[in-house]
């Protein structure tokens, strides 16, 4: 998926944030940093606030998963055959579809979102635990991608020459390839290599690590291209020249002068990378190369539920909606952050 | 132009060689012995030795890679199998499947037409809808229709394909029953007739097109707004040209240039298989073939599909670069 390739121009278009913020804001307010201005703008943006609240809720669910599941008392991996009164939950003669509930989902006061056909595992508990997997993998992959993208982009932009040529070609190649196909083909290979090299079993802990690594490794190129462009123009600015003429080394320039000016960009693209990685993790687990049984993940749940779409559509609806709402919230917040950090945006 | 093309083709060959080497060594260097994969669970040392000889796993990796590439480069293909049991593998030889012994190239060429129809249909859909929506939004900037299309595109970008695909499938196939359930048999236009063919492909097209349509709407809108603020648009208006000429001949034409680049790359990428859409609708295209091969650990099949997809991407890159120079007079090929 090439999400991001056709994004609108980067927030600052190469000019350092400080400078633009100054020109745009100096007339009205003086002495406010871009961060403060952006935060003030965000607080007035209803969509941003709603999506931030939704995201915080999702993160809370992920962190508190064991506590939340205690509320209904069904661990996500437990096979439930009978309800509290001893009546069967599943119709064993009919392929194991749940008995009763909304749209044949088997939902009840005990099993709020119904039970899984055949196994009788609680859908609510699995959904809650699936949030953990989705967020953890997506965040891990995003962090790897941002670190790689920042380092490679800055190296290419700062040193230039053949280093830049080589790295830029690498970015082009990484960007133009259909990464899902490669990720899909490589995930099992890397998992089995990791198993042999590290001597740990190919369980879902290893799988999650592999997914983070693969998503990060295939996700850095777009960010690197943006960082490279901004570094190229920042490098030529007077304050960098001044520092250099006073004897500052590349370490000082990169960490003290370039990196702070790149932070707004990094913030925006981090927020926009997360939803892409959440989708990718779900897609891989859906295809059967990501998280495996018995660990719950949204993608796996969708894949399992697709066999029951006729008799029990709600089973597919819940993980689908969870995925959609999470991705939408991150995308909306990312867009709002970008608008708030864009000094050219009209209002102050 | 000719020299540029030759240079690009050489570059492309180099890129493909690098990709093939990297993927080959990544896949084949797995310590898990491929011979064990082939002969299954009840396997004695003798059978393993036999399998090793048949598939050439005894040779050093570099020799195996050389043999593999020979089958792709030499017009005569190559011979596979051990002594006494040799088979000709005609060009282009991607080897034989470990699962069932079918030449990988046969499977790829069988699966490709479905993927091609899927990708082309979806591409037409998203290009037309994305550009139209983006154009209208840009021309009515700030009005209701603009906000509507911006919101719609944000919604579309956020709709994961697995969710959207199953939503359509549930709505139109299960609930409303407007379209029959997709059977695994592939619908070829000339055998099933246009009505059944359309029924087979319409939902997959929409599923695949959604995300792209949303991205193209955003892109067209942004480019068009930038272009309409250019000086030459004011000049065109000042000359007294009517608005339609200004918008379509002067504005849209230049706003579309970057979109054509991305369009070429997107379509090129999809020709390697639209894995998720094919999986949802049970279309036996390249995407389904590749995921089935991955799940079965069928190395030659995975390798073949990855290389095949890479060829499309590299070729699409060249076509896009050349097209860019033809459309945009400011770009000169040197």
TrEMBL record, chain A:
Residues 131-334 form the ABC transmembrane type-1 domain. The keyword Transmembrane applies. Its main location: membrane. It is found in: Cell membrane. The keyword Transcription regulation does not apply. GO terms for biological process: transmembrane transport. The chain crosses the membrane at residues 47-69, 135-161, 173-191, 206-227, 266-291, 314-334. Keywords: Cell membrane, Membrane, Transmembrane, Transmembrane helix, Transport. GO terms for cellular component: plasma membrane. It comes from the Bacteria. InterPro entries: BP-dependent_transpt_permease, MetI-like, MetI-like_sf, OppC_N. It is a multi-pass membrane protein. Belongs to the binding-protein-dependent transport system permease family. This is Peptide/nickel transport system permease protein. It comes from Kribbella sandramycini.
Automatic annotation (TrEMBL), chain B:
Residues 112-324 form the ABC transmembrane type-1 domain. SUPFAM superfamilies: MetI-like. It is a multi-pass membrane protein. It comes from the Bacteria. GO terms for cellular component: plasma membrane. Gene3D superfamilies: MetI-like. InterPro entries: BPD_transp_1_N, MetI-like, MetI-like_sf. Its main location: membrane. The keyword Secreted does not apply. Pfam families: BPD_transp_1, BPD_transp_1_N. It is found in: Cell membrane. GO terms for biological process: transmembrane transport. PROSITE patterns: ABC_TM1. The keyword Aminoacyl-tRNA synthetase does not apply. The chain crosses the membrane at residues 12-30, 116-139, 151-178, 198-219, 259-281, 301-327. PANTHER family: DIPEPTIDE TRANSPORT SYSTEM PERMEASE PROTEIN DPPB-RELATED. Belongs to the binding-protein-dependent transport system permease family. This is ABC transporter permease.
């Amino acid at each position: 998926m090439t999400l991001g390739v056709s994004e609108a121009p980067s927030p600052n278009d190469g000019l350092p944030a400080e400078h633009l913020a100054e020109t745009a804001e100096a007339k009205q307010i003086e002495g406010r940093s871009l961060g403060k201005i952006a935060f003030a703008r965000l607080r007035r943006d209803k969509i941003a606030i709603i999506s931030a609240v939704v995201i915080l809720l999702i993160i809370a669910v992920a962190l508190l998963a064991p506590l939340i599941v205690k509320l209904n008392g069904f661990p996500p991996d437990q096979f439930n055959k009978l309800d509290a009164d001893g009546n069967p939950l599943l119709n064993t003669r009919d392929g194991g579809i749940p008995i009763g509930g909304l749209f044949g989902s088997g939902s009840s006061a005990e099993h709020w979102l119904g039970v899984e056909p055949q196994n009788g595992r609680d859908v609510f508990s699995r959904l809650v635990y699936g949030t953990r997997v989705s967020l953890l993998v997506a965040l891990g992959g995003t962090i790897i991608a941002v670190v790689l993208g920042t380092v490679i982009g800055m190296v290419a932009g700062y040193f230039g020459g053949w280093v830049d040529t080589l790295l830029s070609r690498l970015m082009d190649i990484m960007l133009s390839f259909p990464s899902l196909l490669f990720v899909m083909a490589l995930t099992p290979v890397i998992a089995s290599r990791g198993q042999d090299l590290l001597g740990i079993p190919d369980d879902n802990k290893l799988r999650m690590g592999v997914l983070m690594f693969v998503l990060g490794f295939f996700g850095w190129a777009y960010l690197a291209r943006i960082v490279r462009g901004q570094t190229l123009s920042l490098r030529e600015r007077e304050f960098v020249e001044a520092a250099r003429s006073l004897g500052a080394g590349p370490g000082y320039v990169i960490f003290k002068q370039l990196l702070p000016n790149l932070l707004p960009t990094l913030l925006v693209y981090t927020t926009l990378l997360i939803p892409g990685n959440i989708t990718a993790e779900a897609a891989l687990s859906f295809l059967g190369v990501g998280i495996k049984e018995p660990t719950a993940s949204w993608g796996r749940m969708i894949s399992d539920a697709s066999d029951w779409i006729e008799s029990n559509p709600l089973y597919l609806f819940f993980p689908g909606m969870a995925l959609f709402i999470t991705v939408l919230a991150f995308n909306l917040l990312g867009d709002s952050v970008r608008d708030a950090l864009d000094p050219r945006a009209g209002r102050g | 132009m000719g020299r540029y093309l030759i240079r690009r083709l050489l570059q492309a060959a180099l890129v493909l060689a690098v990709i093939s080497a990297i993927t080959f060594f990544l896949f084949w260097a797995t310590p898990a012995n491929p011979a064990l994969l082939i002969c299954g669970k009840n396997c004695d040392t003798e059978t393993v030795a036999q399998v090793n000889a048949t598939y050439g796993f005894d040779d050093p990796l570099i020799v195996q890679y050389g043999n593999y590439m020979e089958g792709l480069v030499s017009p005569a293909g190559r011979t596979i199998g051990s002594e006494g049991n040799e088979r000709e593998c005609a060009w282009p030889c991607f080897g034989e499947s470990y699962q069932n012994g079918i030449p990988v190239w046969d499977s790829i060429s069988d699966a490709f037409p479905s993927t091609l129809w899927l990708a082309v249909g979806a591409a037409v859909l998203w290009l037309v809808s994305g550009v139209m929506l983006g154009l209208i939004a840009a021309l009515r900037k700030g009005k209701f229709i603009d906000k509507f299309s911006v919101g719609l595109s944000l919604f579309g970008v956020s709709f994961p394909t697995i969710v959207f695909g199953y939503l359509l499938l549930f709505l139109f196939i299960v609930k409303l029953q407007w379209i029959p359930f997709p059977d695994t048999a592939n619908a070829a236009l000339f055998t099933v007739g246009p009505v059944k063919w359309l029924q087979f492909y319409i939902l997959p097209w929409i599923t695949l097109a959604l995300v792209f349509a949303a991205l193209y709407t955003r892109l067209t809108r942004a480019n068009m707004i930038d272009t309409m603020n250019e000086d030459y648009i004011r000049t065109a208006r000042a000359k007294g040209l009517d608005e339609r000429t200004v918008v379509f001949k002067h504005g849209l034409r230049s706003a579309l240039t970057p979109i054509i680049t991305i369009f070429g790359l997107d379509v090129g990428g999809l020709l390697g298989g639209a894995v998720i859409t094919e999986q949802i609708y049970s279309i036996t295209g390249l995407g389904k073939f590749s995921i089935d091969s991955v799940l079965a650990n069928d190395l030659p099949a995975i390798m073949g599909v990855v290389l095949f997809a890479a060829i499309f991407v590299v070729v699409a890159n060249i076509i896009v670069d050349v097209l860019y120079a033809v459309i945009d007079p400011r770009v000169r090929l040197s």
